[in-house]
Structures are given as C-alpha cells and as structure tokens.
Design goal:
Number of strands: 10
Oligomer: single chain
Low-confidence stretches: none
Mean pLDDT: 96
Strand content: 35-45%
Structural class: mainly beta
Largest sheet: 6 strands, mixed
Number of helices: 0
Radius of gyration: 13 Å
Order of helices and strands: EEEEEEEEEE
C-alpha cells in the first residue's frame, strides 16, 4: 500500500511561484513513476507532469512546459513540482499520483496508468 500526502498549495499572485511536495509512504517509491495532475470544477483531471523512477524521463503538458519542473528525492521519498510564472489559469486542485507498474524510464501521462492518489492540494493564482 502506498500513501501520498501533498503539501505546499496556497494563494499566490500571478507571476509568482510555489513548490508542491508529495511525501510517500511504503517501500516502493524508488521503483514508482510519479506524476502531478490537476482538476478544476466541472472538468476532467488533467496531466501536468510525470517523472520516471529513474528520474531520466520528465514529460510535461504543453500548458506548463518551461514554467513547471517535476523532480524527486528518493532519499526522502518525495516528489516535487516547482511552479514558476504562475497564471490564473493554473488555479486548480493539484493531485500527486504513483504507479509501480512502469519500467525504469517510463513516465506515464494518462491518469488511468496511476494506481495511487493523494487527497489534493489547492493552488489559487490571483490576478
């Protein structure tokens, strides 16, 4: 069983930065691909970024590429999402996800590829 706990959300002005953290429990973090998704009311949960368990693959969505960076610290069992140049349209609940069913350099993009999910953390970007 893997448990995920997100933190770091909050209210920030447009152009500002936030860093989200996702702490994991369990012994499988080092062999888990991790991802961040986000969701706004009435919309489907959308992919933001993912990272393979090797750390060598880090795809991200077109809407955040160049502004958001995903990283992981295997010693701390934690994955991060550094968000810079935030825009009002980044406002959403951000969810951390994990899967143990991926290869070393795979970083899945589909929500259905992920088995474990956190409770989410709210990010609000004001104008």
């Amino acid at each position: 069983q893997v448990q995920l706990v997100e933190s770091g959300g909050g209210l920030v002005q447009a152009g500002g930065s936030l860093r989200l953290s996702c702490a994991t429990s369990g012994r499988t973090f080092r062999s888990s691909a991790m991802a961040w998704f986000r969701q706004t009311p009435g919309k489907e949960r959308e992919f933001v970024a993912s990272i393979s368990w090797s750390g060598g693959s880090t795809p991200s969505s077109d809407s955040v590429r160049g502004r958001f960076t995903i990283s992981r610290d295997n010693a701390k069992n934690t994955v991060y999402l550094q968000m810079n140049s935030l825009k009002p349209e980044d406002t959403a609940v951000y969810y951390c996800a994990a899967t143990t069913a991926s290869r070393r350099d795979q970083a899945p993009l589909r929500r259905y590829d992920y088995t474990y999910w956190g409770q989410g953390t709210q990010v609000t970007v004001s104008t």
